[in-house]
Amino acid sequence: MTTLKESAAATSLPTCRLGLTDMAITRVGFGAWAIGGADWAFAWGSQDDRDSIAAISHAVERGINWIDTAAIYGLGHSEEVVGKALAGLPAAKRPYVFTKCGLVWDENDRNAPPRMVGAAASLRREVEGSLKRLGVERIDLYQMHWPAKDGTPIEDYWRTLLDLKNEGKVRAVGLSNHDAAQLEAAERMGHVDTLQPPFSAIRRDVATAELPWCHAHDTGVIVYSPMQAGLLSGRFSTERVQALPKDDWRSRSAEFSGDKLTRNLKLADAFKPIAERHSITVAAIAVAWTLAWPGVTAAIVGARSPAQVDGWLDAATLELTAKDMADVAAALKTTGAGAGPLAPAV
Length: 346
What we know:
Blueprint: E1 15-17, E2 24-26, E3 28-31, H1 49-61, E4 66-68, H2 77-87, E5 96-101, E6 103-104, E7 115-116, H3 120-134, E8 139-144, H4 154-166, E9 170-176, H5 180-187, E10 194-196, H6 210-217, E11 220-223, H7 238-242, H8 258-270, H9 272-278, H10 282-291, E12 298-302, H11 306-312, H12 322-335
Parallel strand pairs: 3-4, 3-12, 4-5, 5-8, 8-9, 9-10, 10-11, 11-12
Antiparallel strand pairs: 1-2, 6-7
Helix pairs in contact: 1-2, 1-11, 8-12
């Protein structure tokens, strides 16, 4: 069996075992949603592939040893870009590659919302497509992106993922955007290697049930959107939000408008004194806050350029103090931003 040390590029950054798998991953990973480019339902606006490849290469050089993407990002384009970046790296430096299935797009209407499909035949077509676009022989982690809405019960699509693992097409299998009851149903059939939930200081609801469930069942957790799509990066303002292009999905998000936006920006401001204490960015504080919760293995953080990687990389090594966590909890209470527990249980 491949050892943890031999599984991915060597890194000087701290690593944690991902659940019960044989993978040890850095506390932050490269998120490839935004590099899918423009012209699809949940795009972040236009993106130059050369910048994307440069960002991935820089992240790997700085020690990040995993990339998270999905077939739906850019309707296959994100996986293609990741594949090109991997092809340009020596084998010894290649990171783990995680991707997702279960969202099927309309080839005739790129901006139509994807269908949430769990049928075995569809998932098998999807994994072959992802393998080809990524240019790999095996996917390190394959995740069901959302619960299916085509009538396929979770037991059926989870069985398909377990079969793909047993066949060697994927190394580990997980669920994304599933709740504790769904995790329990899947676990009865075969171990859930990972959960990928949304989690940030603004969106905290999974801390109530899903994080404790994963912690109790040795299921790895890789959270996404720890900066709440950039709101907690310390670089947003009302003016910047108003200037977001129409092809950026955030221009239509409730968190980026009205009273929610006001509260969210006040919360980001409250992170600044904490960032100054540690001489790092607000973005790194926001990411490190998610990593301080029991059950969280690592965080997926997006980047569209090398400079953006450098903006949050300190989170990979930062451990927030009790005072830091108390200050964030106080800011959450004062601003009223988001919902969910304010701090980990003592």
